[in-house]
Write a structure and sequence with these properties.
alpha/beta; transferase; six-stranded parallel sheet; Mycothiol_biosynthesis_MshA; glycosyltransferase; Glyco_trans_4-like_N; magnesium; elongated; 14 strands
């Protein structure tokens, strides 16, 4: 995990556990400016990060680390605080208009958001928060100021990085602004610890943002293994969702935006049906999710593309669904298709595998960690629809492939439980607290 954690391992176990209890924070201020943990993933800017924050906070609370999540109020009349679970409190901060504020306009509201965070803190005894954990660069800026003002360590998780996204842009997608690049660079310098989802993300922090390698810790996100599991199998899930039992069902689930490349799946299906017209009667392509990000400019774009490619008759557009029903969509699918241009981890890939479904994904970001190529799914270099069509043909020709790979996928996903992620995150908090104290001592020494 972090270098601190590996050093800890060389001490006697009792000393290590005593030290951990001494240094571990009791209460963490978690910041999620642009997306509320109470929002449904797959809508607007809500996605894997929402799931990550909710699950991590609940598991941290279970190991006696209280979490208060600060997020922007996006509707009038919301309760100022909502208990998400025992030991997890969501605080709604008024910053900017409730509705219709694009993520790109949020930097202008960071001052107001910071004011709300400071106001909440002012109502407590000194030392109420032991550590700040910010998610995404917008929160990082607030976290930087809050941690400095409160004299506590800052732990930051990027989730995605402007320089990495700009290096892997989809056609017609707009690059991230320079202000974000500058903001991220400042946060990397200011944080006591940076949490990366994968080794690759850790390397990118060092390479693109000159992060100090000693400050970067790799913690794989987890998956809710109680919710995402094979359960009663593919046939039952298809029956519940009203889907044909013998169809080839390649599923897209996620936000509809160029970055996630749902168009690649539609183009691949068009290629497949050109070569194998007889498959048309037994293929169904569900697209489950809502427009987001730069996809909001053309919310009907994907429907129009399906019509233009001549595959509208086999594609089913479905609005975002709750986590329980999403698990059923995963179980029902022959294969989950993730042709993303950039993906810091690809939580959806682990969720689908945990539900017993193989994944066909672009070989980008954290997806090679999430998917074992040839074992639990297939990784494709690049975004050529013909390459994806080739893999889909394998699933069409061998119906048993979904079942055999799905079993391996469910086994693989079991190592990604949230309890493991929470314990590793707590160790990062401990390391951040130690290095922060050392820095304060040397500053005053």
């Amino acid at each position: 995990m972090s270098q601190y954690v590996s050093r800890l391992g060389r001490r006697s176990p009792s000393a290590a556990s005593r030290l951990r209890l001494l240094r571990r924070p009791r209460r963490v201020a978690m910041l999620s400016v642009h997306t509320s943990p109470l929002h449904q993933p797959g809508t607007g800017d809500a996605g894997g990060m929402n799931v990550y924050i909710v699950e991590l906070a609940q598991r941290l609370a279970a190991i006696n680390i209280e979490v208060e999540i600060f997020t922007r109020a996006t509707a009038g009349g919301l309760a100022p605080t909502v208990e998400l679970a025992p030991g997890v409190l969501v605080r709604h901060v008024d910053a900017g208009p409730y509705e219709g504020l694009a993520k790109e306009d949020l930097p202008a509201q960071l001052c107001a958001f910071t004011h709300g965070v400071m106001q909440a803190w002012a109502g407590h005894r000194p030392g109420h928060y032991d550590l700040v954990h910010s998610h995404y660069w917008l929160s990082g800026h607030v976290g930087w100021l809050a941690a400095q003002r409160w004299g506590v360590p800052l732990v930051h998780a990027m989730h995605t990085m402007a320089k990495v996204k700009n290096a892997n842009l989809a056609d017609g997608d707009s690059p991230e602004p320079a202000a974000r690049v500058i903001g991220e660079t400042q946060i990397v310098a200011a944080a006591d610890r940076l949490i990366a989802n994968t080794e690759e993300e850790a390397d990118e922090l060092v390479r693109h943002y000159t992060a100090d390698p000693a400050k970067v810790a790799v913690v794989h996100p987890g998956v809710n293994l109680d919710r995402f599991r094979p359960a009663d199998g593919r046939a039952a899930a298809r029956a519940r969702l009203g889907l044909p039992q013998d169809a080839l069902i390649p599923l897209f689930a996620g936000r509809i935006q160029p970055l996630k490349a749902p168009d690649v799946l539609l183009r691949a299906v068009a290629v497949l049906l050109d070569e194998r017209p007889e498959l048309r009667s037994r293929i169904l392509v569900p697209v489950v999710g809502g427009p987001s990000g730069s996809g909001l400019a053309k919310p009907e774009g994907l429907q129009k593309l399906a019509a233009r490619l001549g595959v509208a008759d086999v594609v089913r557009f479905r609005p975002p669904v709750g986590q329980e029903q999403l698990a059923d969509w995963f179980r029902a699918a022959s294969v989950l298709v993730m042709p993303s241009y950039s993906e810091s981890f690809g939580l959806v890939a682990i969720e689908a595998q945990a539900a017993g479904t193989p994944v066909l994904a672009a070989s980008v970001g954290g997806l090679p960690v999430a998917v074992r190529d040839g074992g639990t799914g297939f990784l494709v270099p690049g975004h050529d629809p013909a390459d994806y069509a080739r893999v889909l043909r394998r699933f069409a020709d061998d119906p048993s492939l979904s079942a055999s790979m799905g079993e391996a996928a469910a086994r693989h996903a079991r190592s990604f439980g949230w309890d493991t992620a929470a314990a590793a995150t707590a160790d990062v908090y401990t390391a951040a607290t130690q290095s922060h104290r050392r820095r304060v001592r040397s500053h005053h020494g």
